[in-house]
Amino acid sequence: MKFNESSLYNIQSSVLGERRSLYELANWKNGIAFKKINFSDTGVPVIKIAELNNGIGGTTAYTQQIFSEDVHLKRGDLLFSWSGNPQTSIDIFRFKLEEGWLNQHIFKITPYEEIVDRDFFYFLMKNLKPYFTQIAINKQTTGLGHVTIADIKKISIVIPSLDLQREIVSYIKPIDDKIELNNEINNNLVA
């Protein structure tokens, strides 16, 4: 996909709806910069980009401390990793664990459901991945790229009515659920 500055931030659509900034659709909360003093051998996992990509593993850090509720993660929360290798780290995820603490370089996204359906927002973000990747590549330094809040505010997209969003989700989500189930089966076979 080729981009110029205009097409990178002004996303075209054949769907009718209201043009809005991506930022206006949700609350975007960045994680906190944990320090080694916060870590312990047990407790609640600290969710970094590695955990989003690979799950809990030998390098996962834990903490027994309590932090602000807005960085406490629960199953189903939407997370956007906005820093790292543009091709492999920049992406949206559904949080799959019971709980965790949100590390820096990841946004916890809470869609404003009076504007955008939660599942529609997830699929929208998946669809925008090539744009996020290119934005991060354009800002890449020493291998790391970033998609900042300033970028998210600049991205302009067309949002259809809630009824149309829900109709779109009714077609996409069952397929996505089957893909997720197949991935879980594959992971169990490998283990």
TrEMBL record:
Keywords: DNA-binding, Restriction system
Domain Type I restriction modification DNA specificity, chain residue ranges per copy: 20-189
Stored Pfam families: Methylase_S (PF01420)
One MF term in the entry's GO annotations: DNA binding
Keyword DNA-binding on entry: yes
GO BP of this protein: DNA restriction-modification system
SUPFAM superfamilies the record matches: DNA methylase specificity domain (SSF116734)
Protein name according to UniProt: Type I restriction modification DNA specificity protein
